[in-house]
Amino acid sequence: MSTADIARAFVIHLGSGAPELVRLADEACERGMRVIELDLQGLVDRSALVDYLAKAFMFPHEIVGLDAAVDLISDLEWFGNSRGYLVIARGVVGTTAVGETFVSILPNIVDRWRSQRVPFVVAIDGEDERLQSVLASANREMERAGKLACAQPGTGPTEVVLHRGNGPRGAAG
After folding, report:
1. Contact yes or no for 122/87 (Cβ under 8 A)
2. d(CA 115, CA 106)
3. Buried (b) or exposed (e) across 35-54, using 16+ Cβ within 10 A?
4. Are 76 and 120 in contact (CB under 8 A)?
5. Strand 11-16 relative to strand 120-125, pairing
6. pLDDT of amino acid 165
């Protein structure tokens, strides 16, 4: 496989380029998935990120904190779409703490959608080693959570596909 594929229902694509993002969005629309585009450029802190996510995902009520944002992004029942979601995130690379915070919550969110069997794919425009490291750390936490006695069956790390140049370089996590 030389490009990102929307058929992989529970995956995070890191380093997707503009043509790939357009193709993924087209494929998602053809499948009836809702496409949500984010641009994190210019967000200065965690509070600004939470406010932005609340607007971008059209939360039905006010929230306080990132945990509440994760809970609502893991649900999205107000959209009424059982065919799934594609989240395209731009402006993540270079935003340092905000980008890292956003990327760190993704494995948890994707894992929750996987448990519901509703496709949830994230494609991030651009990549760097710092974001790879944040995703790997978040996936280690998901792996630990999956081993707990009280864990929901299937809880665990999320597949991460790293893209460089013309296609994926491999999986990390």
Report:
1. yes
2. 14
3. bbebebeebeeeeebbebbb
4. no
5. parallel
6. 55
Secondary structure of residue 7 in the 3-state scheme: coil
Output the pLDDT for position 148: 79
Q: How many CB atoms lie within 10 A of CB 96?
A: 9
User: Are the beta carbons of 24 and 4 closer than 8 angstroms?
Assistant: yes
The DSSP bridge partners found for residue 36 are 87
Distances (CA, A) of 169 to 21, 100, 152, 166: 17, 21, 31, 9
- Where the chain has pLDDT below 70, the residues are 1-4, 95, 165-173
So what's the pLDDT on residue 65?
95
pLDDT of the residue at 156: 83
Residue 63 tokens read as: 């929230």
Q: What are the tokens at 80?
A: 């009424």
Predicted local confidence at residue 3, as pLDDT: 56
Angstrom distance (rounded) from CA 113 to CA 43? 26
